[in-house]
Structures are given as structure tokens and as C-alpha cells.
Amino acid sequence: MPDSAKVLVVGTDPAALGEAGGSLEVRHAAGLSEARRLYQEDTPDVVVLNGSTADWLPELAADADAPPVLVLGPAELPQAFGCLSSTADLPAWLAAAARYRRLQLEQKRGRERMVQQEKMAALGSLVAGIAHDMHTPIGTITSNSDILGRSLARLRELIAGECCSESFRNNPEVVRVVKIVDEITKINQLASDRIVSIVRSLRNFARLDEAELRETNLHECLESTLTLIHHELKNRITIRKEYGDIPLVRCHPNQINQVFMNILVNAAHAIPGAGTVTIRTFRDGDWVKIQIADTGIGIPAENLKRIFETGFTTKGAGLGTGLGLAICAKIIQDHNGAVEVESEVGRGTTFTIALPVEWKTS
Amino acid sequence: MIADSDRQPVILVVDDEEMVLVSIKSFLLLETDYEVITCNGPTAGLEVVKARTIDLVVSDYLMPDMDGISFLMQVKLLQPHTIRILLTGYADKENAIKAINEVGLYQYIEKPWQNADLLLVIKNGLEKRFLIEKLQQKIMEVQMAQESLQEIQDQIIKAFM
What we know:
The structure holds two protein chains of two kinds.
Chain A: E1 6-10, E2 25-29, H1 32-41, E3 46-50, H2 57-61, E4 69-72, E5 82-84, H3 90-133, H4 135-160, H5 166-170, H6 172-206, E6 214-216, H7 218-228, H8 230-233, E7 237-243, E8 249-251, H9 253-270, E9 275-284, E10 287-294, H10 301-304, H11 324-334, E11 338-344, E12 348-356
Parallel strand pairs in A: 1-2, 1-3, 3-4, 4-5, 7-9
Antiparallel strand pairs in A: 6-8, 9-10, 10-12, 11-12
Chain B: E1 10-14, H1 18-31, E2 35-39, H2 42-51, E3 56-60, H3 68-78, E4 83-88, H4 93-103, E5 107-110, H5 115-160
Parallel strand pairs in B: 1-2, 1-3, 3-4, 4-5
Helix pairs in contact in B: 2-3
């Protein structure tokens, strides 16, 4: 939230704000249609109406997140934040309304964060449940592909052996079928190995069974996350790993996984064509640092300073919630750590996460 | 490996999932000469354990009428020397470890399992089973030898008195 409150004055001459207007970002609309347009463009922190524009009040009040409204005029309106009979009281009322707005927005962000965290928790338990239910069928498929491979090897020995006639052994159709079954079985084994590793990653990622603080191997967290976002990377993005010698870190692995996933997916999205994401881990004194650097489009300076703000997004509506990095920052903060970002437009962005080697309970 | 035993090992596999039973049975029939009995639940499994000697049991953990640990405890009561193996999903790992300590399981295998691991665990389990059997036989032989020795001694003493 910027220091100076944004005020939308409708109807009244903004000169009426007097000296109070000096520290504010004031916009003026003569009528309601212009006011609606300005409101749409950028939601103000306080709206000031007068007797003739107060008709707008019920419409504004219908939105629980709407900014407080001050009405200049004698009427007593319950939906207004305040009704002022004299412009002399305006500076004090404006300050109060701006303070109210700040608290209102803070509360709203808190609510959004909570909803998001609940969503993640619900998703986590769903994922863990699915991963568990998949054990039996996947175990069976893995086992059966293995049995097929072993059976085929046995069959080939038989075909090569004495009990088999020369004409059967050399029959092109027999040779062809054996070759096909051999290839298909090998592919099945690869495919089921892949499923097993995805399910293992899902399980590690959700880590519902280990939600508490524990000594965690961050490289394992990174590997699980990389398996899960494989589809975002595909052949487009090269992952370069520069894993250093780092100790186990006491943390909530499921939360740290969420941070890695957010930053890695953002990195993948920042790269338009082919590119590289470099993951470096190293120890720096009392800190373990994880650096995730992409060769993407970079972030302009004016956006960079707002990047960890709740609700800030440059993705279109419906694409980004503007919560991802805000939650990352919160998680790292809860771990007594720090997250920093450096970026250069056209060259790429580097996130550096620092987690304390020794966990000091605060 | 089981050269010390001249009889065919008998294995019981219990799981409520038919697909698991078929897979494990097919695998063991392909790779071993064991007699493999499969049951789709603990109740049917206990009937088999009551009826005949079982060398080794592999049981699933989560089953509708009785969990795998309770089932393996019952097996222990009926046939104390049967080797007991639990097949379990990852989330039940803690229970499995508890069971190994409390019930005295031989091993647990995590689902999704690898056939090679399963075979190794079963082979080692059977080896243990037959070693114990052999040991008991030796102990019995020694006991019998001792008894007959005692008898001879008694007769000698009697003859000279």
C-alpha cells in the first residue's frame, strides 16, 4: 500500500479539501459516469461524495471490499463511513478513512492468504490419498511387466533350445512376434518405472505424514519438485544443477517444496522459448542458500520491488492469483529465513533463498 | 539354497486384491518351485493355516475384515515358526515398523514392490525357516542320543551292581 492515499472526489470541487489535499493523490470527477470510469481504472482508497452524488453510495456499499465513503452534506447515511456537515472536519475524516482502508486491505490479504493455504492443504491431502490408492495397481503393473520380461527370456531360451524345431525357430513370423513382445515389455517397464517415480514424488511433495519440522535433505525436495513440474519444462528448458555440500536443514518439507515449485514454475514461465534454469545450493556461514536462476525475460525494476506483495501479478486475470510469491515469502519468513530477488530485463532473474543451518525457536 | 530341505516349500499369500494375488503367484511359479496358495482375505487365510503346515506367509496390511498385523499374530499363535512378511503401502510404514517390533515380523515390503526384492526376502525367510527346522531336528537328535546314552549307562550300572 502506497504511503499517500488515493482519493476520488465526486461532484465537489477538490479545492474544498484544502490543505488536506496536499499529501493525497486526488482525482476529481464531475459526474457519476466519469466517477465510475475512474473507479474502474484504479480503485481509490477513499471516495468523497456530496449531496448530489450520494446516490452512488448504495451501489458502492454493495461490495464488501469497497473503500470507505465520506459524504459532504447534511444527510445522515448509514452506509457512509462518515457524513460531514462542514469541510473543516475533512482532513481528520480523510486520515481516519485512509487508516480504515489500510486495515481493510490488510484483512482482505490475510483472508486471501488463508484461503490459499487451506486450498494447498486440501490439495495436499487429496494428492496423498490418490498416491496411496495407486500403490496396489501400480505395484501390480510393475510386477507384471517384470514377470513378462522374465517369461519372455524363458521363452527365448526354449525357442533357442533343442526341443524346438529349426523351422519354427527361423519362422519369420515367430521372430517378428518375439521381437515385438520384447520391445513392448521393455517400454512397459520404463513406463511403470516412470509412474512409480511420479507417485513417489507426489508423496514426497505432499508429505502429509511428515508435516512437522524435521531434518530435511533439500536436494531431495528439489528433485521431487523437478519430477512434478516435468511437463512445464519438457524439452524446452535445461535444468543445470550445481548442488553443493549442504547439511540437512530443519524445516517443514511440504512448505519448502511449495516454495521451490512456485519459483521453478515462475522461472519456466519467464523463459519464452528454450532456456536454462540453474539451481545452485551452497553453504554460506550460518546459512544454507538455494539459488534458482533463469535465462528468462527478466523483471522491470518497478515490478521487482512489488514482487512479494500479496495480489501483485503481471499474469492476466485468471492466470495468476498474485499470491504465489507472497506465500513463498511468508513461508521462508516463518522459517527464519530470507528470500531475495535480482533481475535484469532481457537477461533473467535469480531468486536466492536463505535458510538458517541452526533452527532457533523464536 | 534350500538344499537342506527335501520338501517343497509352501507359501501363503493373503491380499484382498485379486490383481496382487495373481501377480505374486505368477511370479513365484515362474521363478521358484514353491507351492503357492493364495487367499483373498484373512478369514480364508486362517482356514488354510489351521489345515496345513505353512512355511511362509505374505500378507497385505489394509484388508476389510482384519488388518494384516492382527492376521499375522493369529498365524503366529497357530504356527509359531512360520515366517511372516507384511506387504504395506508407504503411509502404513509406521504401523509396519511397530508390528515388526511387537509381533516379531520377519520383514515388511513396501508397495509398490519390486519382484527381485520380494524374491530375495522370501528366499532368505525360507532359509531361516529351514535352518530353524534343521536346528530343532538336531536338538531332538541330541536329546534322543542323550536319552539312549542315559539308558545304556543305567543298564551298565545295573549290570555291575
